[in-house]
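Methods — Computational structure assignment.
A single polypeptide chain was analysed. Its primary sequence is given first, followed by the predicted tertiary structure written as structure tokens.
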Amino acid sequence: MMPAFVYLLLPILFWSGNYVLGRLTVSGGIDPYTISFFRWSFACLLILPIAYGRIRQDWPLVKQHWAMLVFFAWLGICNYNLFLYIGLTSTTVTNAVLLNSIMPVMILITARILLGNKTNFLQNAGILISTLGAIVIVSRGSLDTFLHLTVSKGDLWIVTAAVSWAIYSVLLIKRPPMHLLSFFAVTAIIGTAIQFPIYLFFSSTNIATLTTAHWGAIVYMAIFASIGAFICWNTGIQRLGAATAGHFIHLLPVFSIFLSVLFLNEAIQGFHGIGICLIFSGIAIATIVNQRLQRKAVNA
């Protein structure tokens, strides 16, 4: 079995790829409703044969907790992904990455409001340091750039997506006591069903115009950014908790930068290195250092 933190690193890597591909496909003229609906449709087709046996075993729980499952599907499958793609059509990349990077703060605030969870000094310090690192990256190390960031309609969509994901992540601890695979498959199917009428009413893309590259991007989103990322993220939260998982969101701009270097021929600059060091330092303080001190305190 992989170390617990790896289950949180992999989703960030997969979502970074989704971020780059989402930006490319949206800017290429494909509307967000088409991207999100087909991404999750393919994901359902792939996961259903694997999860069918588990779903049959957990069917009594599905019927008992159907309202909660619809709520999880609406937040995590429909809202977060669709709102993110809609936001990318009308906001700058800098703003989108910055707004995604404050999600750990949203998760901690949400956990405090909904579950009464409290954070200690090291966790708060880690959040502050890693947030500063994310700001350094997206502002390109310039205070003037950061101060002149403008708020657009796309920014509000990104914030709404982040809030949806924060609530989803925090409430995962309350999910029905069913197998992770069947939980994911059922919520994916429900979330896709919710998106279907939205796709019919608002989509403007002619499917016949999609290229092989477009379909390849959507298949990547289905396999890695959907199935792989959601299963790993759920597993990581179960093992380490939502507050700890939230810190790893700060790695999104880090991984996105490296993927941009590989696939978009962008260059790494000095402020990238400073930001990455701050992000990793913040995560280390909030997770590794904090956990070691807590274990020492228990054993003392």
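Note: The mean pLDDT is 85.
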